[in-house]
Design goal:
CATH architecture of the largest domain in chain A: 2-Layer Sandwich
Oligomer: heterodimer
Largest sheet of chain A: 4 strands, mixed
InterPro entries (chain B): F-box-like_dom_sf, F-box_AtFBL13-like, F-box_dom, FBL13/AtMIF1-like, LRR_dom_sf, LRR_FXL15/At3g58940/PEG3-like
Protein name (chain B): F-boxlrr-repeat protein
Distance between the termini of chain A: 50 Å
Strand order of the largest sheet of chain B: 1-2-3-5-7-8-10-12-14-15-16-17-18-19-20
Structural class of chain B: alpha/beta
Strand content of chain A: 5-15%
CATH topology of the largest domain in chain A: Potassium Channel Kv1.1, Chain A
Radius of gyration of chain B: 28 Å
CATH superfamily of the largest domain in chain A: Potassium Channel Kv1.1, Chain A
Keywords (chain A): Ubl conjugation pathway
Shape of chain B: globular
Number of helices of chain A: 8
Subunit structure (chain A): Part of a SCF (SKP1-cullin-F-box) protein ligase complex.
Distance between the termini of chain B: 44 Å
Number of domains of chain A: 2
Helix content of chain B: 25-40%
Number of strands of chain B: 20
Strand content of chain B: 15-25%
Helix content of chain A: 40-55%
Pfam family, one (chain B): LRR_At5g56370
Structural class of chain A: alpha+beta
Radius of gyration of chain A: 20 Å
Largest interface: A-B, 37 and 36 residues
Number of helices of chain B: 15
CATH class of the largest domain in chain A: Alpha Beta
Largest sheet of chain B: 15 strands, parallel
Order of helices and strands of chain A: EEEHHEHHHHHH
């Protein structure tokens, strides 16, 4: 199927998990290695992305647009946008991270991973378990044994809160 | 991070935990993080300080060995006993399964009183063997300077190198063919070191030296090196006569900032400059004398002399910078332009700058208005003007300049000289306070000065569209009020009430 065009700009449709459609310029999605390959090699004009929620897709498209507008003079504004972009509830951040990983948008992926890492940084093991709802499958004896392997990793001023 | 290392528990455990939940009839496990693929979790762990990445091993079985695959290392020794720190780093590196290291960072942020040379050599060698791309080594320890191992000279995988308080051997054979960015902090290099260094980094794009000393010539022959930053001279030393020549015909971005003491930087060839920031301060020789590096018999004479040198230098800068489109300039330009005018130097001797985007970093001082007027007069093409005000305690190191001209500055000639100015291209003006001291005792004085300056700009800019006053919300530590914001909001109010120019600009107060 040939891509539809308006003027010089090629138009592409992305279909989110709940069948919602997003129409955007093809040039925008080239930041995604996955979509770039699909567009360039298979010449499709509509791409279903059933594993990505529409809400997540909206966020990602918003990012792609902002990123495409990035110039040396609005760098600061873009940085603020990025900060706000990952300032979302954990569930949503993980949705975005997984989707960006799937779409292979490498710059954004590193940024999302950093945002997840920032929620782990300087936290105690207990706090990290609470934040991410990780259930330990170790016995207390096992855990204290592992802690003894590298006691330095568990020393220092660690934050016990889940904020 | 495509390659993953097979381990006893890793993959199978993920399936276990998922099927367990499905058996319970729960569609989605709550622990979303642990469900992410190994590569993604390793990427996340690699972005943490290594200590936190290692601590993840007790979260659950899923996490037990993930940290073995991290490819960035960031060790900070602030919380450890030295021998524990060494044990920890050794333990982590022995278990590292990554064949390629991206980033290796060591932070020694306290007085360790321990010479790590043997250990740091071992660790850095490890990183070099694994084709490390970014090395960042920091130390705040004033007593000790750490030395890089010889192996680093051959590290052709290096892309960025940041060293603070680390040195390399004189004559180290440097083959950093991929190095793009080099950042050295607290560094003493002589002219030969500079030549050796630059010839070893043919791909270098960015060079940043902070608290530097020892060299008097910086010649950049490579056309790849586009960006140079020199920030603060590291105390004057006896060997240096206080001059530095910069020859960099391909350089596009130049920044010289901070305190240069008596160092006079001369720009011999910077003919490709697009963007320049010259906001350094020179202490006049009188000020240096007071630092105890040698006294002068006739202080006043020496003070005059150093201002004279600076004056010649700044005039030369204006010629060298005349083609740059973006300029940030500091106080010494203001002083010099003002002095030139007082001494009746004709304008034809001051070149027109091509600059479109002009930033001025100023102290509010006696001759603010004259200096700014002079600078704008010299930049007729500027369409955007940013003024960053630094409110400083009075600098007592040199009052000669101000007292010398104070009589002249107040006379009416000056006022009429200024009021005849027009800035035909200026569209945007922004004023803000970048460095703030408490304004409690100088509030009215500062307000008067700022108002005078703003009023002058409003009156003289014929096509001005926007006049923005930006204020950051920060509480003053001294008076525990937001004195800065109060000043700027009063300024905005006053301006709204004052007579406008021919144009009718919008006045905006941003908080």
């Amino acid at each position: 199927m040939a891509s539809s065009t308006t003027g010089e700009k090629k138009i592409l449709t992305l279909k989110g998990g709940d069948n919602e459609e997003f129409i955007l310029e093809e040039s925008l999605v080239l930041q995604s290695e996955l979509l770039k390959n699909m567009v360039k090699e298979e010449r499709v004009s509509s791409i279903p992305l059933p594993s990505i929620k529409s809400k997540t897709l909206v966020k990602i498209i918003e990012y792609l647009k902002k990123h495409a507008e990035l110039t040396p003079s609005n760098k600061e504004e873009f940085k603020n946008f990025e900060k706000e972009f990952v300032n979302v509830v954990l569930e949503e951040l993980l949705d975005i991270t997984v989707a960006v990983n799937y779409l292979k948008i490498n710059g954004l992926l590193e940024f999302c991973c950093q945002a997840v890492a920032d929620r782990i940084k300087d936290k105690s093991v207990e706090a990290v378990r609470k934040i991410f709802r990780i259930e330990s499958d170790f016995t207390p004896e096992e855990e204290s044994e592992f802690r003894k392997e590298t006691p330095e990793a568990f020393e220092g001023d660690l934050d016990d809160t889940t904020n | 991070m495509a390659s993953l290392h097979s381990r006893k528990n890793g993959g199978s455990n993920l399936r276990d935990s998922m099927s367990k939940k499905q058996n319970n009839g729960v569609e989605e496990t709550l622990d979303r993080l642990s469900q992410l693929p190994d590569a993604l979790l390793v990427q996340i762990l690699s972005l943490l300080p290594t200590k936190d990445a290692v601590a993840s091993c007790v979260l659950s079985n899923r996490w037990r060995f993930l940290w073995y695959s991290i490819y960035n290392f960031h060790f900070i020794n602030s919380n450890y006993k030295t021998e524990n720190f060494i044990y920890f780093v050794d333990h982590v590196l022995t278990h590292c399964t990554s064949s390629k290291i991206k980033k290796f960072k060591l932070d020694f942020d306290y007085m360790s009183r321990w010479n790590f040379e043997l250990e740091t050599s071992r660790w850095i060698n490890f990183a070099v063997e694994r084709k490390v791309e970014d090395i960042i080594l920091c130390s705040d320890d004033e007593e000790l300077t750490y030395k890089l191992p010889l192996s680093i000279g051959n590290c052709s995988s290096l892309i960025t190198l940041n060293l603070s308080h680390w040195v390399f051997d004189k004559g180290l054979a440097i083959v950093w063919n991929s190095l793009k960015s080099l950042n050295l902090y607290l560094i003493s290099l002589d002219d030969d070191d500079i030549v050796n260094l630059l010839s070893g980094c043919p791909a270098l794009e960015t060079l940043e030296l902070s608290f530097f000393r020892g060299f008097s010539r910086l010649e950049i022959k490579s056309s790849n090196l586009k960006r140079l930053t020199l920030a603060s001279h590291w105390r004057p030393d006896a060997e240096n006569d206080g001059s530095l020549e910069i020859i960099a015909p391909y350089l596009q971005h130049l920044e010289i900032s901070g305190n240069l003491y008596n160092l006079m930087c001369r720009l011999v060839d910077v003919s490709s400059l697009v963007n320049a920031k010259l906001t350094f301060n020179n202490k006049c020789i009188k000020g240096i004398g007071a630092l105890g590096t040698g006294g002068f018999d006739d202080e006043e004479e020496n003070c005059d002399y150093s201002h004279q040198v600076l004056r010649t230098l700044v005039q030369d800068y204006l010629h060298k910078l005349s083609y740059a489109t973006e300029l940030s300039i500091g106080n010494c330009f203001r002083e010099v332009l003002c002095a030139l005018k007082f001494e009746g130097v004709p304008w034809v001797l001051i070149p027109d700058l091509k600059c479109k985007y002009l930033t001025l970093e100023l102290y509010i001082g006696k001759f603010n208005l004259h200096g700014v007027a002079g600078l704008l007069r010299a930049s007729p093409h500027a369409d955007t003007l940013n003024i960053d005000i630094a409110i400083m305690p009075y600098d007592s190191s040199c009052r000669c300049f101000e007292s010398k001209y104070s009589a002249k500055g107040d006379n009416n000639d000056m006022e009429s000289w200024i009021s005849s100015y027009q800035f035909p291209n200026l569209k945007n003006v922004r004023i803000g306070i970048s460095v703030g001291e408490c304004l409690k005792y100088s509030f009215q004085w500062q307000l008067r000065k700022l108002f005078k300056l703003s009023e002058f700009l409003l009156k003289s800019s014929t096509i001005l569209e926007k006049f923005t006053i930006t204020s950051e919300k920060r509480k003053c530590k001294r008076c525990s009020m937001n004195c800065e914001s109060r000043l700027l909001s009063q300024l905005a109010e006053k301006l709204l009430g004052c007579a406008r120019s021919y144009a009718n600009p919008v006045i905006i107060f941003q908080e």
